[in-house]
Amino acid sequence: MSGKDRLDVFPSRMALTVMKARLKGAQKGHSLLKKKADALILRFRKILGKIIDTKTKMGECMKEASLSLAGAKFTSGNISHMVLQNVTKAQTKVRSKKENVAGVNLPVFEPYSEGNDTYELTGLSRGGQQIDILKKNYAKAVELLVILASLQTSFITLDEAIKITNRRVNAIEHVIIPRIEKTIQYITTELDEREREEFYRLKKIQEKKKIIRDRNEKMKLERMAKESALQEEPQNLIEERDEDLLF
To answer: Taking the model in full, what pTM does it have?
Structure first.
């Protein structure tokens, strides 16, 4: 096993426990990131569908607004100078907020109206109905533009978040977890080898102790036999001497 495939750790029981804890943490992190990626992809697809629907509505709305503008010009003449004279401040404004989706903050834009209608007196002379339709169509178009901008911004943000999350998931799945598993395998192999060496060493020590014990026991028996022989030898001499005296 090469050093690139595993982490550089000293094989021990403590290291094995630490690596198993790291493996469990990596697997849990991989599971959580996978769930996050699935949630982001689900929201990404929903936003994509909303963008398609909003663009379709936007096309129809802009077509109606262009037709109403042509009708207003036909009935009221050139109304551009009247609009420019009445403009003081923006009537439609945009407020921004954030929506949290699986830890990712998505910007959300909402249109709202503030103040009175600055064009309420426009068209009193002629073409008032056409101008009123024109205002409503363009107000609807502005609202759809804000919604579309919000969806597009959320779409781009989610796209980047999904790419980052998928890279992390792939890194944990294909790099970190295999490396930790190979490190655990390496530590386990080294510990098993040490246990085999320790068992072999203890076995040799026991055999050597047995040989020494048997040798000592043999020497002890030989010494006891010699001592016993030395104790019996004088008695035989006395008996033989006594027999000589009797004859």
So the answer is: 0.66
